[in-house]
Amino acid sequence: DVQLQASGGGLVQAGGSLRLSCVASGFRFGDYAIGWLRQAPGKEREGVSCISSSDGSTYYSDSVKGRFTISSDNAKNTVYLQMNNLKVEDAAVYYCARGTGATCTGRYGYWGQGTQVTVSS
User: Fold this and answer.
1) Residue 14 in contact with residue 88, Cβ under 8 Å?
2) Which residues of 44-68 are buried (b: 16+ CB within 10 A; e: fewer)?
3) Torsion angle, alpha carbons of 108, 11, 16, 114, to 10
4) In whole angstroms, what is the distance from residue 70 CA to residue 66 CA?
5) Residue 84 pLDDT class (50, 70, 90 cuts)
């Protein structure tokens, strides 16, 4: 079974940092892009970042560009999201998801459970 296990969320003050991890299993890790999305209460789900397995290219939404960094450790089947200079508006449940192919397209076929990120002012 395809599984995506997200972890690393927590409570942090504005300006602080967190690193989220997404451990994947049940499929060939190198064949699929992995993305991070988030959803805050009352808001639509938003794509935050993605990393393509085809060439390692990355995508960031404008709201996190320059503050978040996505990376992949193929040996550990894990994708990380380093989040720096967190803002109150970054608070949300963060999900990792498997793309429909090796390139980031914004479409995802499998989702993990979320991890809560809370940012205090």
Assistant:
1) yes
2) eeebbbbbbbeeeebbbeeebeeeb
3) -10
4) 11
5) very high
Summarised one tens digit per residue, pLDDT across range 92-101 is: 999 999 999 9
Say what the pLDDT of residue 26 is: 97
How many residues are recorded in the chain? 121
Question: Could you identify the residue written with the tokens 């999305």?
Answer: 37
28-65: pLDDT as tens digits: 999 999 999 999 999 999 999 999 999 999 999 999 99
SS (H, E, C) the chain: CCEEEEECCEEEECCCCEEEEEEEECCCHHHCCEEEEEECCCCCCEEEEEECCCCCCEEECCCCCCCEEEEEEHHHCEEEEEECCCCHHHCEEEEEEEECCCCCCCCEEEECCCEEEEEEC
